[in-house]
Amino acid sequence: MTTLHVLFFSTHHALWAEEVLRTAGMTARVVAVPRRYSSDCGYCVRVVEAPEPAIAAALAAAGVEYDRIVRDTDGVSS
User: Fold this and answer.
1) 8 A C-beta contact, residue 8 and residue 71
2) Domain ranges for the chain
3) pTM to 2 decimals?
4) What is the topology classification, in CATH, of domain 3-71?
5) Which H or E element spans position 43?
6) Helix (H, G, I), strand (E, B) or coil at 52
7) How many C-beta neighbours within 10 Å does residue 13 have?
8) Confidence grade of residue 1 (pLDDT, cut at 50, 70, 90)
9) Given phi > 0 = left and psi -120 to 50 = alpha, else beta, which region is 2?
10) Interior angle at CA 55, CA 60 and CA 52, nearest 5
């Protein structure tokens, strides 16, 4: 299972992104940022089984700003 975390500069954008990604048919959930990553707002969106380009495209189409998308490297999700 591929898990990606989308990191944001604000909580507002994290909540907005969750809605956008779910509407696009992706499994997305706002969670606390895992300790191994750093984020300005403390929350990220965990996305399961979705390609990174599709995530980036959905967020860009909705105008949602994000810091970066990181792949879960150790198989442990928060």
Assistant:
1) no
2) 3-71
3) 0.87
4) Alpha-Beta Plaits (3.30.70)
5) strand 43-48
6) helix
7) 22
8) confident
9) beta
10) 125
Length of the chain: 78
Would you call 77 helix, strand, or coil by DSSP? Answer: coil
User: pLDDT for 13-56, tens place per residue?
Assistant: 999 999 999 999 999 999 999 888 876 678 999 999 999 999 99
Question: Within 1-78, where are the H helices?
Answer: 11-23, 52-62
Give the confidence band of 75 by pLDDT, cuts at 50, 70, 90: low
Query: Token digits for 64?
Result: 């949602």
- Reduce the DSSP state of residue 8 to 3 states and report it: coil
Residue for token digits 């995530």?
55
